[in-house]
Design goal:
single chain, oxidoreductase, 175 residues, globular, two-stranded antiparallel ribbon, 8-stranded mixed beta sheet, DHFR_dom, Dihydrofolate reductase
Length: 175
């Protein structure tokens, strides 16, 4: 029995999620939501994304790092050579720890490769377009995912932009 797989992402109106190895905004409110959504759950992250936040695992979350570099290792984290291998490792960790879901936290290429295995999307829609972004989130197909929650969040004092927190669930397969 596998646990649900979710994606946690912040996306600009034009699909941008990153620029020059970083996020093109400061969103303290979203970082608090990210922490609440991922704490205690195994997370799948690409090597470049891990390096973008300091190269060390985030506390309180078992990490599975996707990398083609067989010599890459991080203390306290599992590495995997492919998304499929990483997903299997994260599911094992979830079973061992009793975690309710596996969270995928990026980057863009990891999101594209894992989308077919995802059950839930936790999307922070950032109310701006980023002209010079270089990393994008795939379009959310409304035939596959249904938006079941959405909350408008005004920009707090440490937020660059207002946002909308949305939750999408995969629609049941129809035969």
């Amino acid at each position: 029995m596998s646990v649900p797989v979710s994606i946690v992402v912040a996306v600009a109106r034009n699909g941008v999620i990153g620029r020059d190895g970083d996020m093109p905004w400061k969103l303290s409110t979203d970082l608090k939501r990210f922490k609440a959504l991922t704490m205690g759950k195994p997370i799948i992250v690409g090597r470049k994304t891990l390096e973008s936040f300091g190269g060390k695992p985030l506390p309180g979350r078992p990490h599975v790092i996707i990398t083609r570099n067989r010599d890459f290792s991080v203390e306290g984290a599992v590495t995997a050579a492919s998304v499929a291998e990483g997903l299997a490792a994260a599911q094992r960790i979830a079973a061992e720890t009793g975690a309710a879901e596996v969270c995928v936290i990026g980057g863009g290429e990891i999101y594209r490769q894992i989308m077919d295995a995802v059950d839930i999307l936790y999307v922070t829609h950032v109310e701006t377009s980023v002209a010079d972004g270089d990393t994008f989130f795939p379009d959310i197909d409304p035939a596959l995912f249904e938006r079941c929650e959405e909350t408008a969040v005004p920009a707090g004092e440490k937020d660059s932009y207002p946002t909308r927190f949305a939750v999408y669930r995969r629609r049941p397969a129809t035969n």
